[in-house]
Amino acid sequence: MTTPDRPDSKIIEMTGVTKHYEGGVHALRGVDLTVEAGELLAITGPSGSGKSTLLHLIGTLDRPSSGTVRIAGHDVGKLADERLSALRAAHIGFVFQQFHLAAGRSAVDNVADGLLYAGRPVRLRRELAVAALERVGLGHRLHHRPHELSGGEQQRVAIARAVLGDPPLLLADEPTGNLDSASGDAVLGLLRDLHTEGTTVLIITHDHEVATGCDRLVRVRDGEIVFDGTANDRASTAPRPEGAR
């Protein structure tokens, strides 16, 4: 099976995207969004705004009802399932609020399992897993199991697994949601480091501080993008309190 080429510039292109579910639920209403390779952005909005649906479409976990979603230049709606799986494996890493680590397995095994279906020999999978864990600062915790790791360390293991194949796009869904502030800050610092190294990082969050710490902020409400800019842009265009000069 051929692996899709790596992206040159626009890693995400969404044009006129809608998503409808049974029962008359309109999760997305004509969304246009372009993300260049190498960006660090946050998508935020209240519960039910459509941000999780956006994540599923960008992550190729679902297809739009109408409109076009292109990831690394490939039209998701036109790809067969096998080709879509290849695109996802080559280009996208996922980090979730829940760490999804196997309780009885070491950190290195949890990460190596990310390549379980890639046809790589066990020795190579483990070598790559060790390198990924060292990359996220856990080279000294290779053989610890999840219950022996802090929440922040477990999330670092999950991030190591997500970047194991060096995907150009990393999707992080509420990555600090289950962490205390210090661990959350450390995880965000790691995501910024990955961005500095060239990874496109997209964070779904309801946390204002997380969102405003990104270079670009996209806010979703009622299935539509209502703001797309920087935190400074948002502050400068916000209405002033009555009586303020």
Number of helices: 8
What is the CATH C-level name?
Answer: Alpha Beta
Given helix and strand content, the structural type is alpha/beta
Q: Roughly how much helix do the residues carry, as a percent range?
A: 25-40%
CATH homologous superfamily grouping: P-loop containing nucleotide triphosphate hydrolases
Number of domains: 1
* Number of strand elements: 10
Q: Rg from C-alpha positions?
A: 19 Å
CATH architecture: 3-Layer(aba) Sandwich
Q: What is the average per-residue confidence, as pLDDT, rounded to a whole number?
A: 89
List the uncertain runs: 1-7, 237-245
Written overview of the protein:
- The chain has one domain: Rossmann fold, CATH 3.40.50.300.
- Helices cover 32% and strands 26% of the residues.
